[in-house]
Amino acid sequence: MRRISRRTFCKRVAAGAAALGLSLGRRTAQGISKQAPAGRPNIVLILADDLGWMDLHCQGNNLVDTPNLDRLAGEGMRFTDAYAAAPVCTPTRAAIMTGQSPARLGITNHAPGHPGGFAPPGAAVGEADNAKYLPLKHVTIAERLKAAGYATGFIGKWHLSCRRGHRGRPPLEAGLRPEHQGFDSNVGGCDYGGPPSYFDPYRNPTITDRRAGEYLPERLADESIAFMTAHRDRPFFLALWNYAVHYPRQAPDDLLAKYSKRKGRGIKIQAYAAMIEGLDRALGRVFKALDALNLADKTLLVFTSDNGSLDGDNRPLRGVKGYLYEGGIRVPWIVRWPGKVEPGTTCTTPILSTDLYPTMLQAAGLAPETGKVLDGESIVPLLRQTGGLQRDAITWHYPNYAFHKENRLGSAIREGRFKLIKHYDDNSVELYDLGEDIGERNDLAGSLPAKARRMRERLERWLGESGARMPKRVLKT
Length: 477
Ligand SMILES: [Ca+2]
What we know:
Layout: H1 2-20, E1 42-48, H2 67-75, E2 77-79, E3 82-83, H3 89-98, H4 102-105, E4 125-126, H5 141-147, E5 151-156, E6 185-187, H6 216-230, E7 236-241, H7 253-260, H8 270-292, E8 299-305, H9 326-329, E9 333-336, E10 345-347, E11 351-352, H10 356-363, H11 380-384, E12 393-398, E13 410-415, E14 418-423, E15 429-433, H12 449-466, E16 472-473
Parallel strand pairs: 1-7, 1-8, 2-10, 3-11, 5-6, 5-7
Antiparallel strand pairs: 2-9, 4-16, 8-9, 12-13, 13-14, 14-15
Helix pairs in contact: 2-8, 6-8, 7-8
């Protein structure tokens, strides 16, 4: 009963904030208290790449086995309405590192992306300009934690640097890797999106010692365990940003064989399902190592994804990676923090990746930088069940064309149970009641015109305040 009442509390908090009509917009976070340094937890931030909202057993997919992540959820809090800051890799990762929205950062599409103004044949609008990488001027969460005495390690996929020259300048990739953005060490973090093969990932210049036949998620787990072991006696920040489950679809033979027999709703591609369990198996070794090192009790562990699934079975959600429909942005999100987060809880308050920066700062007892605009908000009150969030809406801006997809350029806002998507090709909007219609089938823009107009105005106000770059009229060639 206690757990049920706590869930209800979380819901009530979200509804209460909406009823108060609290504003969304420019806001400088303040008033975060300092903890004693001795109480600082380790922070392990695990990202999966392109893992969809329905891709885990604990999220309701009964055809995929993810026992280790299920156990993690049972030991912590699972957020049902968690979102990536963007429907593709790079802007979400930039938002995590800075606490600022892709719109404010001007980083709205995956690197390297098209040049600004690009439009596919027949399209009505061309892309907004996009910064393509995370400039060094930003103070990252790794830089903050490092300055506070944390050992900082990056392992896995980065995708925040740029291999190609930008606006005529020489290539910057080597100067924009994790080790230049606050991490003491970097294994795997360079420019490219996916590995050519999960069994031979060595196009990556930071992994030079080949080990025959190893599976990349297992190698990244090995590297993570080595990092945690080396720094077990001091606070550390480990970013384990997996390449899985981005294509190519590759998994160990035993899992491929296991899933080759599984069919049904929840599995669209069997090798993809095998890969999900392959990731879960590797993460299980990381979790076990935390226990063996006696670190689990003093570690804040977050698991989430950088965007929705590209070609998994996203039902009941609409859309995939690259779209502002729920399938493109809604993601799994689990937090374990022993002694702080009650085991086995769920929270329905909408959160998004931009919240990680202020959350990690608060967990480490650090205040946000003076004068920095934070678009995210610390979710520590939700984790500790001491209160709700101040905001009552979250927003997205995706004025770019995703590779592989024919998405429409747009922006979106979720306010309570309602979500509005604005399209730039014809200036139309769609409005959905996610409480009744999680699959976004029944567009209410026509039947609730006043609500649609108000949400659209609020979205446009936020875009203006954020300095968001806008799509361009198509250039005649
Ligand atoms: Ca991704």
